[in-house]
Design goal:
Elements (H helix, E strand, L loop, with lengths): L4 H25 L2 H4 L3 H7 L12 E8 L5 E3 L4 E2 L8 E7 L4 H17 L3 E7 L5 H10 L8 E2 L4 H6 L6 E5 L4 E7 L7 H8 L2
Parallel strand pairs: 4-5, 5-6
Antiparallel strand pairs: 1-8, 2-3, 2-6, 4-7, 7-8
């Protein structure tokens, strides 16, 4: 059956009206977080900025659970992340053969003293020789106030997807990674301390 020009126009207007109504209905199906920036993303954007020697501290949109992997304390005791639940942790993966790591160690010591009990600075050595090289390194550079933590098989680094040394993670009181910085940094600077205290 043929359709007149007027009929075609009426049909077109009706289809347009239906599309508008359907579009309005679909809009109501989506939460505001889909239509606008998510609260997590907005919170990430307002976190204190901190620039390392070559790269910035990157805040994650959502906290990331840490993988179940163990490392060693200075006395050989196996340590789990749950050991530190309730404390903010500054986890620094480093090695004695890594020049940028060696450069930032004094700043980590000063950071530890500045934070006191507010947060734990945890330098985790990736040296394969373990304590036999880390202990004299600490002694020769006056770092004995820093704790000694060992991961000679780099199990933690692999589990965390670390791409190079040094790499530093900020871990919240629930044991989740909230930020990461690749490369060396002035960790005792006011900007760094402000970032850590924001965790």
């Amino acid at each position: 059956m043929a359709v007149s020009a007027e009929g075609k126009r009426a049909h077109g207007l009706g289809a347009t009206r239906r599309r508008v109504l359907i579009g309005a209905g679909l809009t109501g199906l989506f939460p505001a977080s889909v239509l606008t920036a998510s609260p997590a993303a907005a919170q990430s954007a307002t976190r204190p900025a901190f620039q390392g020697d070559s790269r910035p501290l990157v805040w994650h949109d959502e906290p990331r659970p840490l993988p179940e992997v163990e490392f060693s304390a200075v006395d050989g005791t196996e340590v789990r992340w749950s050991t530190f639940t309730g404390r903010v942790v500054v986890l620094n993966l480093w090695a004695t053969w890594c020049a940028p790591c060696v450069k930032e160690m004094p700043a980590l010591l000063r950071l530890s003293r500045a934070l006191g009990r507010d947060a734990l600075v945890l330098p985790l050595s990736q040296d394969r020789a373990g304590l036999s090289v880390v202990e004299p390194f600490y002694t020769s550079r006056g770092l004995t106030d820093l704790g000694v933590w060992l991961d000679p098989r780099s199990r933690v680094a692999r589990a965390l997807g670390v791409r190079g040394l040094p790499t530093t993670l900020l871990i919240d009181r629930q044991g989740r990674e909230v930020a990461r910085l690749e490369g060396a940094a002035e960790w005792d600077s006011p900007a760094a301390i402000a970032a850590i205290r924001a965790v």
